[in-house]
Amino acid sequence: MTARRARRPAPIVVEGDSGSISIQPDARMDLYSTFRVGGTADFLVRVADESDVLLAMQWADDHNLPVTVFGGGSNMLVADHGIRGLVLVVRKPGRDVAAELELLDEDSDAVTISVPAAAPLTWLGREASQRGWAGMTWAVGLPGNVGGATVNNAGAHGTEFKDALVGLRLIEDGRRLVDRDREWLSPEYRMTRLKAGGNPKRDVVTRVTLQLERGDADALRAEAEQHAEYRHATQPTGKCAGSIFKNPPGDFSGRLIEELGLKGTRVGGAQVSPIHANFIVNEEDATAADIVGLIELVQARVAEATGTELHTEIERVGEWNQ
Ligand SMILES: Cc1cc2nc3c(=O)[nH]c(=O)nc-3n(C[C@H](O)[C@H](O)[C@H](O)COP(=O)(O)OP(=O)(O)OC[C@H]3O[C@@H](n4cnc5c(N)ncnc54)[C@H](O)[C@@H]3O)c2cc1C
At the N or C end, where does the chain have fewer CB atoms within 10 A? Predict the structure, then answer.
């Protein structure tokens, strides 16, 4: 570990009108994805605010580099060959997201709030419940950030991020700060127009606006804790990226996989979780190729036995063909 650090190239500091960003060459991407696999990114920058995003996108344009956007990296599978260009991570240590929550409007029934994309989703779930704002209890215990949840239209327990979403603020095409409404985002089951485009991306979400009904704080807190406990009891806690496959209409991918006896199946260091069949865990120093091999094995076995085609929910990023 020390040897790795010693060989790390020095960061490139880019000065802008309202601050500077530090760009790390040859950055280890296993540190930025919950699967804990993948090669290095040519360059990586962690951004704190909108001016950082603009500066980073300008630097990438000046150097003709594609940009791959990361939130919490909890839905990403990074290629073993790494990621070419710049990885822009919308989270920076030391940022006080609680201080950045803005109350835009309120009446006796509901509140309208603005939240930074960098805010952890589970924090938002807890904070909203504690304040007696309903509609976010499902988010407690989910990894990732508000920006990633917006792009993925994350959800659980019958609720989706879109249910509370009013609009979003983003840096569009790497240069314009614009406000868009929910209809523009076109959210569907684990899909939006920003997700459909995949990576590299030129649009970076910086804030979202949510409308939440008022509720009883004690009841909301209890509901949130119940959801978190259920998650803890039914899902693996190791290195993974959540549900691997979307649920086919009217069924559950986990049920189909479990019924075929595939729990515990391995390819290299990757294993179908013995706890939840729709999770693949990086059990023993898996490579991204192991995980893809296991995904394809499961897809083939399910298609063969049931005729159902399973589509992945996770996103593959980086350089896969070499
Ligand atoms: C243990 C575990 C359990 C999970 N359970 C669930 C679940 O119950 N329900 C569910 O829906 N998901 C679940 N997930 C998946 C994941 O946590 C969610 O999809 C989460 O919302 C992704 O957020 P993220 O910040 O990690 O996004 P990332 O994985 O970093 O990125 C996801 C996508 O969003 C884009 N993106 C991220 N931030 C921005 C931004 N600011 N601007 C533009 N694009 C951006 C990325 O480019 C990428 O396309 C689980 C994951 C794990 C590890």
Answer: N
**What is the per-residue pLDDT across 247-285, written as a single tens digit (0 to 9) for each?**
999 999 999 999 999 999 999 999 999 999 999 999 999
Going by alpha carbons, the residue nearest to atom 6 of ligand 1 is 242
Q: Specify the residue with its C-alpha closest to ligand 1, atom 5.
A: 242
- DSSP per-residue codes, 127-155: HHHHTTB-S-GGGTT--SBHHHHHHHT-E
Ligand 1, residue 195: give the atom nearest the CA: 49
Q: For the whole model, what pTM was predicted?
A: 0.96
Residue in 52, 70, 75, 92 to alter for ligand 1 test, most ligand atoms within 8 A of Cβ: 75
Task: Give catalytic residue positions.
Answer: 190, 243, 313
CA distances from residue 262 to 33, 45, 83, 232 in whole angstroms, order as listed: 25, 39, 31, 21
Contact assessment for residue 143 and residue 156, using Cβ atoms and an 8 Å cutoff: no
Domains of the chain: 2-89 (3.30.43.10), 97-234 (3.30.465.10), 253-317 (3.90.78.10)
Question: Could you give the CA distance from residue 178 to residue 49 in angstroms, rounded to a whole number?
Answer: 15
Q: Which residue bears the tokens 């094995």? A: 297
Ligand 1 closest atom vs CA 153: 11
Q: Kindly report the CA angle at 258 between 252 and 260, in degrees rounded to 5?
A: 110
For ligand 1, atom 34, the nearest C-alpha belongs to: 148
